[in-house]
Amino acid sequence: MKKGHQVTMKEIAKKLGVSVSTVSRALKDSPELHPDTKKRIVEMAESMNYQYNLLAQSLRISKTKVLGVIVPELTSHFFSSNISGIQDTASKRGYNVMICQSNESFEQEKANLRTLVAAQVDGLLISLSRETKSYEHLHNLYEREIPFMMFDRVTEEIPVSKVTVDDAHGAYLVVDHLLKEGCKRVAYVSGQEDLYISKKRKEGYLKALLDNGKSLEDAIIYVTDLTSKGNEEVALKILSDSNRPDGVFCMIDPVAIDVMLVFKENGIRVPGQIALAGFTNNPTSGVIEPSLTTVSQPGYEMGVIAANHLLDQLDDLVSTEPQSFVLQTTLIPRNSTKKTSL
Amino acid sequence: MKKGHQVTMKEIAKKLGVSVSTVSRALKDSPELHPDTKKRIVEMAESMNYQYNLLAQSLRISKTKVLGVIVPELTSHFFSSNISGIQDTASKRGYNVMICQSNESFEQEKANLRTLVAAQVDGLLISLSRETKSYEHLHNLYEREIPFMMFDRVTEEIPVSKVTVDDAHGAYLVVDHLLKEGCKRVAYVSGQEDLYISKKRKEGYLKALLDNGKSLEDAIIYVTDLTSKGNEEVALKILSDSNRPDGVFCMIDPVAIDVMLVFKENGIRVPGQIALAGFTNNPTSGVIEPSLTTVSQPGYEMGVIAANHLLDQLDDLVSTEPQSFVLQTTLIPRNSTKKTSL
């Protein structure tokens, strides 16, 4: 332990075997707790020479009525839907919203966090960049007792509330659909394999294969770096494979669209020769020909739920005990997988 | 004049017949000005009992290295491109960016402004909401000497620097193209007629008609409220017109895409029977069939130019004299207007 180290609520919680939020409520003299519990915690805090974080307290009291949001990118339809949901909810409850984008950069994400904290936002909603693999900045935020929660790109390392989408189930739905439409060999085009969504959607892909009488040996997985060039290379690789798949599930719609354009350029009939599906329901997917089967994620609802829960916490309407919200996805069958009617 | 009214730099400038930025530089004791000019301004300021805005000064000195951005909406490809340009430029110069969206609401725009000013941003980049018809909030910002400039949706009422796109010329290019491809009767589908871009693009539309030997009587103008429902109604109206146009220029791509879908549903060949073009070059426009002829706007470059100019002003590399940057657009001819080869 460093010299001059300040005792944290986490350390008090650990000593007593209670949760951090219980410690927090005890030190705030919350009426929700039993007086004995409160007494035990306050005495422990005093014995450990705990210093109440006066700055954080004063910030909490002089509310700015502003929420800070950090998203990886704003050009993505999904994240801009999240933000619309957050903004509409915040407005209804008298809050304004300031947004920073990390551009998928870990350094930028940390700079965003410093900026929004310096701007004295009342709370933060954070979706992690692809590069973020260590969480010291979030631990620090947590220790400073600045209220925040995470959405979509989350980590289990920090005990705050989270809103995510059931990625594995969404992938299951679409792969199951391809197999039910009569595809014999369904491939999965994945993004970089260490991405959370790559893994989760692979899980759903494999489970759908197994549930439809296939084995793990039947899995055919291609990996793209998610650039248009990478997607086109994968499409050409699929076409040149000796044992070509007759159904392809792409991790996200932009990949499926690039793949479709290459298939069409090469005279492949979609879905006649190869059925194709994506994930996310981008605006383009409904107007491309053939229209793209996909999975819709409740991006707007995710923003609403995240903002409402954080504001409920700020207004002491709910406890700060971490909650986990997992939202369901919906299969949107379109022409790109309509094998049965052809 | 209200009681307790504080004398502004604008009033001093008016009295002396000099620009506000000259007054500002004189009061900051800038070496750029002739000592006599400086002396004359300082004496006038004293005689008028001008109070230096100490708060603004102190904010200016303790830089936060943050730029605030206000945009009408984040789901628009154009504005998210602007933001990418702003963000990349700011990052390179050691600044971070906080973004607020007005959701096309005047009240929200004013709330955003208050939020960003309270967060002590060093400067602001503002694009106005559709609803904004009065400018007191911007006059106020100007009076408080908080550096800002405007982009895309601007007003001439405030003497700050602006970056816009040459809308009229872009519309001219696409209408000229439709006529050169052999269209005899080209219609314009406009948004609400009081919108700045509706007017500017109409200007270009009419000029292209005139330059191609048509008269103003040949103009055929439809108006949509820019909702999908409104766009579809206009498309049906076009189809039922006794003297149907054989070329249609839609004010923005999303309108052209809705119109195209209705045409196709009604068995109209595009471009065979009606050629169709849009404006903005949305990602969908390149993948729809037939691919949509459109005009690309330099959204990213607009962001770069706006951010660089504002940062140049903040760093005293350029004067605060208002500049006007007008960026050129590019015609992107695609299949939806290819009449000649059919």
Automatic annotation (TrEMBL), chains A, B:
Entries under InterPro entries matching the protein: HTH_LacI, LacI/GalR-like_sensor, Lambda_DNA-bd_dom_sf, Peripla_BP_I
Keywords assigned: DNA-binding, Transcription, Transcription regulation
UniProt entry tagged with the keyword DNA-binding: yes
Stored Pfam families: LacI, Peripla_BP_3
Gene3D superfamilies: 3.40.50.2300, lambda repressor-like DNA-binding domains
HTH lacI-type domain: residues covered: 7-61
Single GO MF annotation: DNA-binding transcription factor activity
The protein's name: LacI family transcriptional regulator
Source organism of the structure: Mongoliitalea lutea
